[in-house]
Amino acid sequence: MVHKVAVIGAGPCGLTSVKACLDEGMEPTCFESSDDMGGLWKFKEVSEPNRASIYRSLTINVWKEMMCYSDYPIPADYPNYMHHSKILNYFRMYADHFKLLQYIRFQTKVKSVKQRPDFSRTGQWDVVTETRDGYEENHIFDAIICCTGHFNYPNLPLKDFPGIETFEGKYSHSWDYKGPEDMHGKRVVVIGIGNSGGDIAVEGSRVAEQMYLSTRSGAWVIRQVSDNGLPVDRFNTRFVHIMFRLLPMRFLNWLGEKKLNSMYDHVDLIVFATGYNYDFPYLPKNAIYKSGHRIGLYKHVFPPILEQPTLAIVGFIHSDGAIMPQAEMQARFVTRVFKGEEFPIKENLKTEIAKNYVVSKLTPLQVDFVEHMDDLAKDIGVQPNLLWLFLTDFPLFKKVLWGPVTAYQYRLMGPGKWEGARKAIFTQYDRINPAPVSHLAPPLILRVSK
């Protein structure tokens, strides 16, 4: 049986991995090379080499009820879509509540991980670490969980821009971006229409003389606020997931595009101003699709349709998010494997993913959220049994079927069952917060042992 586990990285995945190890009776040691937890969500005014970097106004694009850990709801007074300072503070509260800090060794870098000479018999690993003072230490672990993230290195393809050597202006990657201060009164072009590109173009358009957005891809613009001012994530339900499997994709595309165009007509507002040709479907691919290469005047097109609905509930612009439930479920699955349980491995997973999502080195690997979570949950015995709920707890059955697929559903039964899961599901709409701009006041910071 696995006893000692090395967890590399104290970001959202590392934190929940430490907790999963403790839940399974293992001895985790988490090595974090920086001086704090949070990974991507630890903001610094100056970007550091080999570390993820975020900008000052960054706000997550996932509703708090859909992104929180399964047995620790985000406080009710936190906004629906949280500023990075709130997310980091949530991690601090999570680590403090489950007493995880004592298992984290800050400012300790993992230099190497190698199989031991007797690995075929013991399955153990040699791990070499180095402290900030240069002190090296050798360790032996029974298992390794690598939680180092995938946003650490900026991709700046200068070779693709002929003439960049003689360009007299300033250019940089969004990894270096902290705020629009350097854009005042300037003509600016943002290359790329991902979440970060959209954020920066909107924010920069407030101060720049003129803001352009260059992209090889068109994009369906999806806002965070749906009908009645409720989070759009609430439509991610089991019932909707079932309908996606039963109804023709052509009909689902028509329905989705009609809904998006009811918010703002993509043809009138975007095609007319930019020249984009919306000849690609909304589904099944992700939010960014291949289309013609165009440069559009961004300042006068996107800010009104992106800013106004969003500012009403978060005070800033939305951007890249991380869904903690997926990281948590993977950690729970892995620690069960460590205990010797055997689960079937899905063959040709990447081929399946490619059928529904763009697979490239430019985009993170994506999976169907509900299907992915249910697959892992089924293997470890925590998938909610709809038939059993229908027969024994009909009010809860309705919440699980018709409500958003929040992580609390995977704490209702089986290993790791949490007695508070049912209540968390019934009160998840009570925690919806209109989030006035005042939420940007300095958050409560818990002291971190180093």
From TrEMBL:
Its cofactor is FAD. Keywords: Endoplasmic reticulum, FAD, Flavoprotein, Membrane, Monooxygenase, NADP, Oxidoreductase, Transmembrane, Transmembrane helix. GO terms for cellular component: endoplasmic reticulum membrane. The keyword Transmembrane applies. It catalyses: hypotaurine + NADPH + O2 + H(+) = taurine + NADP(+) + H2O; trimethylamine + NADPH + O2 = trimethylamine N-oxide + NADP(+) + H2O; N,N-dimethylaniline + NADPH + O2 + H(+) = N,N-dimethylaniline N-oxide + NADP(+) + H2O; hypotaurine + NADH + O2 + H(+) = taurine + NAD(+) + H2O. Its EC number is 1.-.-.-. The keyword Cytoplasm does not apply. One of its GO terms (molecular function) is hypotaurine monooxygenase activity. It is a single-pass membrane protein. It is found in: Endoplasmic reticulum membrane. It is an enzyme of class 1 (oxidoreductase). Broad spectrum monooxygenase that catalyzes the oxygenation of a wide variety of nitrogen- and sulfur-containing compounds including xenobiotics. Catalyzes the S-oxygenation of hypotaurine to produce taurine, an organic osmolyte involved in cell volume regulation as well as a variety of cytoprotective and developmental processes. Belongs to the FMO family. This is Flavin-containing monooxygenase. It comes from Haplochromis burtoni (Burton's mouthbrooder). The lineage of its organism: Eukaryota, Metazoa, Chordata, Craniata, Vertebrata.
